[in-house]
Amino acid sequence: MINDGDGTGSLKLEYSSLAELFDDILKKYAQNPMLRSFGVCYTYEQIDELSRNFANYLLHSLHMQKGERIALIMPNLIQMPIAIIGALRAGMVVVNVNPQYTSREIHYQILDSGASTIVILENFADRLSEIIDYTLIKTVIVTKLGDMFANPKRFIFNLINRYFYHGCPEYKFLAKTVTFHHALRHCSRVDYEPQNISLDDLAFLQYTGGTTGRPKGALLSNRNLLSNLEQIELLYGNVIHRGKERIMAALPLYHVFALTVNFLFMSKIGGYIDLITDPRKINVLVKELISFRPTAITGVNTLFNALTFNDEFANKGRNNDLHLVVGGGMAIQRSVAQRWKKITGTYIIEGYGLTECSPLVAVVSADEGEYTGSIGNPVPFTRVKIMDEHDQEITGCDREGELWVKGPQVTSGYWKREDDTRNAISDGWFKTGDIVIRLPNNQLKIVDRKKDMILVSGFNVFPNEIEEVVATHYKVKEVAAIGVKSSNSGEQVKIFVVKKDPSLTQEEIIAHCYKYLAHYKVPKKVEFMHDLPKSNVGKILRMELRKLENERRQ
Prior knowledge:
The chain contains 17 helices and 29 strands. It is an alpha/beta fold. The chain has 3 domains: 17-197, Rossmann fold (3-Layer(aba) Sandwich); 245-405 and 419-451, Rossmann fold; 454-553, GMP Synthetase, Chain A, domain 3.
């Protein structure tokens, strides 16, 4: 056992790296089913072999060095965990990239991270081909949707995806391109040798915009993630059945919530993970829920809301095996929680976390028994404090302030961003930017966000980025973006635009945004104005626009 302390107490870690964790659990649960996708199942033993082969390919064929970055652009497919585990076992740093990103967004993250290798689903390869000449990528490993099926199903599935659903636009790479199957087979006869990886070695560059500006890579070490896994186990160990849990992974693994809870933690306890590639297809998701009968589910408010309004789920959603439902990424609405409880017989445990905290910071206790509207208490070995605008601690229950967090799961900073790191972290305390209040029962409740970040279905959206794209339209004079409430996604983007050309329409702006922004970032509302509110130095005041929206709702 390894003692890990940072002023929050001594947390004992069972492993010295995530690679060592997987070396152990893949053998410990060898015969258990581990991953399921499109009805195809792989055991822990099979994933052990495939991830070792992938690690060997990175080390012996590509000659990658410890600490090099490898980018992954995939939805939830069996290939994703294989690539993650293999990269970690090889001592590489994983850079998760949202496959919904446009080529411009992909380019920024790949260039900023300095990734030299990328694994990408063929469906998104055309976006990479547009910008690969302007990156440091040396090798592209391409996988197809049905690559983990046995033939002839694999051949038929990939054929249908390419030609019937037109899922694979044409693309061309100038870098070395190999198939995922080649990467798994090429070094299959090479003995896997565990690498020398320490707790403080970097495991993931997990990108977040934090609050403003371009996305930043949060440095998540092996210590950070192993600590968060241990904290979850300390909190929920008494309700977890090791080797027997079945979890529905509808949230994408490139999101830190699903990465830690659905994948890393469930793997650690020998769980069976059902990977949902496209949770937006609610009817398909419901059929999978009924068929798979999960014992645990994680999700965001948007997902739970959609399920509760589905007729088939409302009639067949009760599952006596289901005993753990965790909501995160965004606030769970009371009405959604109540409908969920009525249909399933289980209640949603709400948690709170941030990318920079690996991510879990606080969560409602498993034995609470009902929806509370709070984010519960800090997880074990985590300290929090509420700070006023003068960085003085608030000790009572009657005042709101910014939540600061300290614990072994907290990042050491941002990749190549010394100024941002200094601004975000003070003496080990991470300034979350979220405004909270302490309730009389000592639980925490999120009140508001300190800065301008917009939260759409659990994903961070940043006004500066939206404004930058809209402002490139030749008919736009000025623009400001804010978040407004949405019953479907928690928040949605609204922009206020001053026209440069009177002929400018909402449809033109939306079409322009779709070219450069992922769909969830695209404004859903556009309001044209003669002028935007500004400070005496000419800065656009988003706060005044939010006030205007609030007054209209009253």
